[in-house]
Amino acid sequence: MSENVPINVSKNRLNEIVKMIEKNKEITSIQIAERLKVSDKTIKRDMATLKEQGRLQRVGSLKSGYWEVLNDSE
């Protein structure tokens, strides 16, 4: 995570992303960014973090695939 972003802000945003994906597994990073009022780049970085943590994975292709929540222990 970036050093200039408070840890609790990032953690809360990560949890919000997981909740959104649980409600709609086909949601896009752009849609998430719009709802959370941050940039698409920020969401993509957060999703990469979630994948590294083993909480999220992409199933299928980028165009027709979907997100799957693996481990929501946070």
Description:
By secondary structure, the chain is mainly α. 51% of the residues lie in helices and 11% in strands. It is built from three helices and two strands, in the order αααββ. It has a two-stranded antiparallel ribbon. The protein starts with 6 loop residues before the first helix and ends in a 5-residue tail after the last strand.
Question: What characteristics describe this protein?
Answer:
single chain, 74 residues, mainly alpha, two-stranded antiparallel sheet, 3 helices, 51% helix, 11% strand
Estimate percent helicity. Answer: 40-55%
Shape: globular
Which stretches are poorly predicted, pLDDT < 50 over at least 5 residues?
A: none
State mean pLDDT (0 to 100 scale).
87
Task: Offer a concise description of the structure.
This protein is mainly α and 74 residues long. It has helices at residues 7-23, 29-36, 40-52; strands at 56-59, 66-69. α1 (7-23) crosses α3 (40-52) and α2 crosses α3.
